[in-house]
Design a protein that fits this description.
mainly alpha, about 5% strand
């Protein structure tokens, strides 16, 4: 554990970092004119186009040449993927399933008998109309007589469900009701305990101690020693954190307890695996960037949790280096976005104009819910403000309404069973609209929305808005206006070719300038992934790493608002976030993160100066050197202590 003096220094230095902004040397116009050295250019590319450099990456880029390396990252299909990544992703089944299969396998519809146990029994179903009338509305004598006419088991069940108004003037019946309720609850608890015993009912005291205080290896050995039936029951009772580092067992436990949680766990774990292990690093950085740009919140409802795997796989990832228009169309047509921003329920005023899709084809419940909602502006507003033009992009409230009208009828067939995009003409506003001064003729149907996408994808405000966000992500929190203007021109000239825009960005003067050098603070995801890469960690399980990202302030797939996480230093430098970063660095260096192994044996012959350079990839700042020298450990600082200090330092928080 780092000594108290170093810990205080780290917190103070992080506070200074936040007060100064991210850029060590400032971001004046002149700083974006000053060039980087050749090695700095390579490190800059590794810092911005990847989730952090691994040992040897700098030498590898030197060997093949920076220009060639950038070209390969811009064409990820030319880069052989890491086989280790394929192996880690293989068990995460939901990444490959369509939404209907996820519903079927991970959101089971329980048998009617189980549903009856969990919902309040309907007295009318139990007693019938005549007896129900006497029990609820009869005199005291009639109520007692009606209940006494039942056989004992049925009477006990009925009495347990009597409302207070029935028993308030019958003390003996109230006493009987309360006793029946208590017995019913005790029976339920006993049945649950029989089906799912507690750990202490299954294991000896020594075995329970292994579960609560043992190592990952000891817990794995314990599970392997149990017979299959007892092991299944034990897995159900294991706390999830006790299974960290054992992904197969944890997944089996989750499938028995809460299979719905597995779907989101798969997404989070896959994002960390890809960020740490993928050879196609730019593709992963852009997948994260564009998901955040077109954010969908898993907590919106069960359909979005089910559809997120398909959304990222089918709408985001294939288009991150393609045409912006194709990306925009894939996002707007995907059921996850239509559900998240409520467009699936948005409809025109004439709900009786039924076209080729009758309401029944969407399911009776879904059709009725649509009929109750009318026009919904959420989708149109966020499409203009957050996805394309930007808040100052020149649109009006009338444009928001017109866009919302254009997308009426873009909906979801069977959102709770087999969610698929569908165009429903009976929901569409077929009248003429005007969007940003462009007339959209009446009767266009689904093409109204397609015309809007075409207008927005080619609009100068969209080019400027997208260019600004990309420059902010890859250059500086306050990017140079000249760079933004240049990227916007490339966007318009190439019809929104994102690969061309990225190439222009990475070869720009500003990207390779002192103004951009170490000008960004890492997000929690970037911090965790880059730390694992910097120490060349062997990562077999990312469950705990995903928790670390959450503790630092970036719960993956759980940003509720559609604007995603803000990409600037002030977002990530709260006291709680910085403290979480220090705790994570310490745990990683000391090998205390389940499923993550760090081998420091190759540092054995190196002094602390060499170790610091190896982890940072460059010379540490003078303040960091001073902390190393002035710490109580002094010259005796171990490799673990040096790694903790480097990974915690403000130097490492920048990219």
């Amino acid at each position: 554990m780092p000594d108290a003096k170093i810990t205080r220094w780290l917190l103070a230095a992080a506070a200074v970092l936040g007060a100064q902004g991210a850029t060590p040397g400032g971001n004046s116009p002149a700083s974006f004119e000053a060039k980087l050295t050749p090695d700095q250019k390579i490190e800059q590319a590794l810092n911005r186009m990847t989730f952090g450099a691994r040992p040897g990456d700098l030498d590898e880029v030197r060997k093949i040449g920076l220009e060639k390396w950038i070209e390969l990252q811009l064409h990820p299909e030319r880069i052989p993927e890491n086989k280790a990544l394929d192996g880690r992703l293989e068990p995460l089944e939901t990444l490959r399933l369509d939404s209907a299969e996820i519903y079927k396998q991970y959101f089971p519809r329980y048998p009617a008998a189980m549903l009856m146990m969990d919902r309040p029994m309907n007295l009318n179903e139990l007693l019938g109309a005549e007896l129900m009338r006497k029990v609820l509305n009869g005199t005291a004598e009639q109520r007692l007589a009606a209940l006494k006419s039942l056989d004992p088991d049925k009477r006990t069940l009925a009495v347990s469900m009597l409302p207070d108004t029935v028993v308030e003037d019958l003390p003996e019946l109230k006493k009987e009701r309360d006793a029946a309720r208590q017995k019913r609850n005790m029976d339920r608890v006993a049945e649950q305990r029989r089906l799912h015993p507690a750990l202490r009912d299954l294991l000896s005291d020594d075995q329970v101690a292994i579960v609560t205080r043992g190592t990952t290896e000891e817990r794995a050995a314990l599970l392997a020693s149990l017979d299959p039936d007892k092991r299944d029951k034990a897995l159900f009772a294991f706390p999830p954190n006790a299974l960290a580092g054992m992904p197969e067992w944890r997944r089996a436990s989750a499938m028995m307890r809460f299979p719905q949680e597995v779907v989101l766990d798969d997404l989070r774990e896959a994002k960390l695996f890809r960020a740490i292990l993928s050879n196609r690093q730019l593709q992963e950085v852009l997948a994260d960037f564009w998901f955040n740009h077109f954010n969908v919140y898993e907590g919106k409802g069960q359909p979005d949790r089910v559809m997120l795997a398909s959304y990222e796989r089918d709408a985001i990832r294939p288009h991150v280096l393609g045409k912006f228009k194709d990306l925009l169309l894939a996002v707007t047509r995907h059921p996850a976005m239509l559900y998240y921003l409520d467009n699936w329920e948005s409809m025109g005023s004439d709900i009786f104009d039924v076209g080729p899709f009758a309401p029944g084809q969407f399911g009776p419940v879904q059709a009725l819910s649509r009929m109750a909602h009318g026009l919904n502006e959420n989708f149109g507003r966020e499409l203009l403000e957050l996805h394309t033009l930007g808040v100052n992009g020149g649109y009006t409230q009338q444009d928001v309404i017109a866009v919302a009208r254009c997308f009426t009828g873009w909906t979801i067939r069977l959102p709770n069973q087999k969610p698929e995009f569908a165009y429903a003409s009976f929901m569409h506003d077929a009248d003429e609209k005007t969007v940003l001064g462009r007339k959209i003729a009446a009767g266009g149907g689904e093409s109204d929305g397609l015309q809007v996408i075409d207008i927005l994808a080619r609009h100068p405000s969209t080019a400027h808005f997208v260019a600004t966000k990309l420059a902010r992500r890859f250059v500086a929190d306050d990017p140079p206006p000249a760079l933004v203007d240049m990227l916007a021109r490339v966007f318009l000239k190439t019809d929104g070719d994102l690969r061309a825009v990225m190439e222009a960005l990475f070869t720009s003067r500003e990207f390779n300038s002192q103004g951009a050098w170490l000008a960004k603070v890492k997000s929690p995801l970037e911090m965790v992934a880059s730390a694992a890469r910097a120490v060349d960690a062997d990562v077999a399980d990312t469950y705990t790493l995903a928790q670390n990202v959450t503790e630092m302030g970036e719960p993956l797939y759980q940003k509720e608002s559609p604007n995603g996480f803000k990409d600037s230093a002030d977002t990530w430098l709260s006291t709680a976030s910085v403290t979480a970063r220090i705790r994570f660095a310490e745990a990683l260096a000391e090998g205390k993160i389940p499923g993550v192994k760090v081998d420091f044996s190759h540092y054995a012959a190196k002094d602390r100066v060499e170790i610091a350079r190896a982890i940072l990839g460059r010379e540490p700042a003078a303040s960091t050197w001073n902390a190393m020298i002035s710490g109580p450990a002094g010259d005796n600082m171990t490799a673990v202590e040096t790694a903790t200090l480097m990974l915690s330092s403000p130097d490492f928080q920048r990219r």
